[in-house]
């Protein structure tokens, strides 16, 4: 039985009949915290009942929150407490990797789990990777944990995320191969060293794409994340064309992958771009 049907069944007689249809169809779990996204305002008065019910049926969940928004270039989540203890710090484990996180200050998208797995499977031995939007190591930590010959340089400009990144590098015992860089990637991305660059952020400008190209040593991959309307899938063509003309590098989009449905109107895509400089 699907989660919504189970919830409808158990809350029959507890919440008004006409609201049963407005119950959430799913939730994600990060550590021991369940996260609902954008609950229907009509069930506002019943949120804590729903949250407490969820805690009673899912043994992994001790706390329930709602994420109502994400704001600023730091992608700070706006979190509302729903049920259980009032705490937003937790420890999430995925692909042998430990992520210490505070859901009130940092985004961690469960929808990117397949991408994290894809990267672990795709990266070859001895690669050197630049994660230009490292956050707490969301995309890059599982690679370095599961590929013992890989080295990573992760750049992050939000002090809170950066402190968690350093803590996570330590708890995962990869401090000899994961090198965190605090700063704006527009002026702190090292040059000519990487086999692969991760650009896991949507508001990327042309200068940042040029930094990614300059980070590549001779040849390698840029993984460029973007949002596109569901009814008109757009690639970052203009930025790529401009970079091709101005740099003279060979830049080819080899594959465009759908990462997740981002909103009712948008898909999150990743373009896998192969770059040859000489
Ligand atoms: C959405 S999170 C990325 C998370 C991760 N890549 C993932 O896919 O789950 C974006 C991160 O990039 C950081 N960021 C945004 N612009 C930046 C910049 N110019 N330089 C360094 N970090 C930046 C933000 O602070 C945030 O932690």
Primary descriptors:
278 residues; alpha/beta; GMP Synthetase, Chain A, domain 3; Rossmann fold; 2 domains; seven-stranded mixed beta sheet; four-stranded mixed beta sheet; 8 helices; 13 strands; 35% strand; binds S-adenosylmethionine
How would you explain this protein's 3D organization?
With 278 residues, the chain is of the alpha/beta class. It has two domains: 3-87, 2-Layer Sandwich (GMP Synthetase, Chain A, domain 3), CATH 3.30.300.110; 108-276, Vaccinia Virus protein VP39 (Rossmann fold). It has eight helices and 13 strands. It has helices spanning 3-11, 47-57, 113-122, 141-146, 159-171, 185-188, 206-215, 237-247, and strands at residues 28-30, 33-37, 63-71, 76-84, 89-94, 97-102, 128-131, 151-156, 178-182, 194-199, 216-229, 250-261, 266-276. The chain has a seven-stranded mixed sheet. β12 (250-261) and β13 (266-276) form a beta hairpin. The N and C termini lie far apart (56 Å). The site of S-adenosylmethionine (SAM) has 20 residues, from β8 and α6.
CATH architecture name of the largest domain: 3-Layer(aba) Sandwich
Beta-strand residue percentage: 25-35%
Shape type: globular
Intertermini distance: 56 Å
* Largest sheet: spatial strand order: 9-8-7-10-11-13-12
How many individual domains?
2
Helix content: 25-40%
Bound molecules: S-adenosylmethionine
CATH fold topology of the largest domain: Rossmann fold
Describe the oligomeric state of these chains in a short phrase.
single chain
> What is the highest CATH level, the class of the largest domain?
Alpha Beta
Would you list the SSEs in sequence order as H and E? HEEHEEEEHEHEHEHEHEHEE
CATH superfamily of the largest domain: Vaccinia Virus protein VP39
Low-confidence stretches: none
Main beta sheet: 7 strands, mixed
> Measured on Cα atoms, how large is the radius of gyration?
21 Å
SS class? alpha/beta
* Count of helical stretches: 8
Q: What is the typical, i.e. mean, pLDDT?
A: 93
